[in-house]
Here is the input.
Amino acid sequence: MTTLLAVIFVFGLLILGHEFGHFMLAKLTGIKVNEFSFGMGPRLLKFGKGETEYSWRIFPIGGFVKMLGEDEQVDNPKSFSSKSTPARISVIAAGPVMNIIIPIIIFAGIAMFSGYAKPVVKDYAKPLSGSNITYPAKSAGIMAGDRITHVNGKKILVYDDFRMFMYQNKGKPFDVTVNRGGKSVNLHIVPVFDKNYDSYMVGIEPYFGRASLPEGIQYGYLNTVSIIKQMGGYLKGVVMGKASVNDISGPVGIIKYTSEAAKAGFSTLLFFTALLSINLAIINLIPFPALDGGWLIILIIEGITRKKLDADKVGIANFVGFAFLMVLTILITFKDIFKFSGF
Here is the structure.
């Protein structure tokens, strides 16, 4: 039951949030919305209100907002096809934008109610009792109150950026820049391996505490930007063959990870939901037919050429793209089934 409720919560928040963005901008720009659907496949239930039909479909792996004139040219002032290019761009972009706003709010809430680590040094970390290791932070010149701003020239937005760098750096010496009383100080650190933690350490204990509202919003924004950069780097690695596609999961994998996150606690589930929301935003912005990114490319071309593309041809391209994405989803689903069943 816990898994079911967690899955409904995660999928519901992400899908409804995304589609609500499209829906609200469509309404604000005077476009008629024929249907607002949660889920795909056969309808389980529906009801009408005003000019829009609201439906719940059997497969909770997506959703859609069906607008008048979205896939064909319609001679009606309330159709999507009749609106200006900026208006249509705003409607299409609203979905991914909502999926960026959601994690900012979630991360801000986590920082305010559960707390977060700042990229500011509170004290020197101490090795476990009985260890003869001396961590290098103090000897390198790091002081309490220093704010870590860069490592090897790479900007540090949140403390997790520093943790990720340490994990990927694998013990190599590195340069760190800290802000100390408004001045930038450059330091050189040589990490040491601590077998008790099975990792390389420098000996920094960050500040941890609950954020105020302004601090929470700032952290939510910075953490979202940081994760977008990480995911962008991963996708670049996949394209260049430097990262494995085996880490990509479909609905089955998401359900499994959602279940694990729910068991770890509500804060973990919220964090996982925020990661998925960012992932959904990035994927939707890929310039491929049937995705928001494909629509935006078409609209940008129309804006530059000042000539609308054939709506019927655009509709066919979106249909073919949608069919391809459905097949890809099925293949990834089978991959997840074999992966998690141990075959």
Notes: The mean pLDDT is 86.
